[in-house]
Design goal:
251 residues; Rossmann fold; Tyrosyl-Transfer RNA Synthetase; 10 helices; 2 strands; 58% helix
Amino acid sequence: MPAHAELAWVLNTLTGFGEASRMTQFKDKSARQGAEAASVGLFTYPILMAADILLYDTAVVPVGDDQRQHVELTRDLATRFNSRFGDTFVVPKAQIGTETARIYDLQDPTSKMSKSAASDNGLIRLLDDPKRTAKKIRSAVTDTEREIRADRQAKPGVTNLLAILSAFTRTPVASLEEQFVGKGYGDLKGAVADAVVAELEPVRARTLELLDDPAELDRLLAVGADRAEAIAQATLARVYDRIGFVPRRRA
């Protein structure tokens, strides 16, 4: 929808160059590959993300810890706009889980789980066959000990499995540690595999069902787009009114 790009342009005018250049994605890519490899699109991408959030009067944004900075930028831009032009945006808050804020690669539990990882074996993919998902989890890297406890430095693999199980069963890690006293890593991996497969299978089944019915998928996307556009256009109209833009005449 054009409203996202339109609001992003307005927010660009309120964002300082230094502020945008401190965003982690741009900074990291520039450092690794040089300034020429980092595009203007990547430079302004966090501002587009801010527009995505602010267009829909979002109060709470559930994110991983690595996205905290982007929500903080969104809050700053919303506050800055409201201060300069009057109350317009809801100032959102980040909701970050403590134990499950970041999930790590099953084969390299010191690195964040990412679709750009060198090996697919460390990733839990939503559309993987359940047997493949279970096999990946049962093959997860742990350590040479037997004690099941959370310790990010000493036992990153076990800690990662506990975090995943905690997220999928809504059980605190401390309670899981008690449940697995005297049990082995095979027991933990089996429990994680069962929990993940049970949670993801309905998602996988529904996704495959929709992919087999393009007409229904298009219908649902159109319904969602219409609902989103109504909200986005109302927000954009408020923004344009606040900053003094002439309303667009529709044919």
